[in-house]
Design brief:
It is a single chain. This protein is α/β, with parallel strands linked by helices and about 325 residues long. Helix content is about 55%, strand content about 10%. It has an 8-stranded mixed β-sheet with strand order 3-2-1-4-5-6-7-8, sandwiched between helices. It is globular, with a radius of gyration of 22 Å. About 30% of the residues are buried. The C terminus is likely disordered. Bound molecules: nicotinamide-adenine-dinucleotide and magnesium ion. Nicotinamide-adenine-dinucleotide binds next to helix 1 and strand 6.
Length: about 325
Amino acid sequence: MNHSPLGNARVAVLGYGSQGRAHALNLRDSGCHVVVGLRPDGPSWQRAKAEGFALATPAEAVREADLVAVLTPDMVQPVLYREAIEPNLKPGAALLFAHGFNVHYGQIRPRADIDVVLVAPKGPGALVRSEYARGRGVPCIWAVHQDASGHAREHACAYASAIGGARAMLIQTTFKEETETDLFGEQAVLCGGASALVQAGFETLVEAGYQPEIAYYEVLHELKLIVDLFYEGGITRMLEFVSETAQYGDFVSGPRVIDAGTKARMREVLGEIQDGTFARNWIAEYAAGLPHYRRCKQADLDHPLEQVGKRLRARMAWLDAPADATPALKKAG
Ligand code: NAD
Ligand code: MG
């Protein structure tokens, strides 16, 4: 692959979901030659076609490519690699991931003659695209797992630039750091921690006899205001905007809810991510047809919080905006 301008390279983007679509559009607008690789009967084929891309099966797309961006769901990547990528990848090509899971946990063991890199935008695909279109970009983290050509670093950075990341900020990382911190964040704080905190707060109020509608507003709905303040200016901004009473309550009660025991359990969660226990369990669960996953998901969906929320949100006219106007943090990584 010609290592300086990615513009001369042929890029195969496999998958046209949240990240795949955004990367493909941004790469094309940056002058790259892009082919989108998809299953012809898959759900994204028509959309990619309507948006003007050359389409091929993953195997065909890989055959022509100097760089292959693997942007399908993480759990389908090992089979995709074995069946469509490895047998067709040109000698010396580059393989790029947006999440390090499969390489880090040995589910994909890339051929020795290729470069293997990571470029992960720190935002959902919709934002990666909309910021690019405005002439800006979403910061990206990047890493090199395998440098067969001696130019893996340039390939990663050129790709991160072509999707707009360099207009904001590029941070070097490793597959290990990206994978472990990503899993920890979503488990301990973002998806796992935050939803369990909200459910526990709701249950505490309702069990004490308060109305579920009032509890919903207090522990779930208003969380957005607080998270928006965190997002815009950190905890500093939250403290600036809430009352003195709320601040005092934060100082005396926050550390009782999230205490040293919570942190010890967070370290336990991190330990199982680091030693591979979490990955092993998740891969086995996926292979078994997701029985535990489905049970837990159903329990979340059946929680009284969800029934109340549905009724209350039906009266929030401002929520009618199209779903991708507020891009959700969506990903298993
Ligand atoms: P997604 O679920 O939104 O889209 C996946 C795409 O792959 C769809 O177009 C789907 O049709 C296609 N697909 C599924 N199975 C396929 C197969 N067997 N062959 C070919 N195509 C197939 O996925 P996503 O959220 O964009 O995630 C893609 C990668 O990006 C993952 O590695 C993820 O961890 C990473 N990532 C996602 C985000 C995010 O915000 N969504 C952020 C950073 C990194
Ligand atoms: Mg994550």
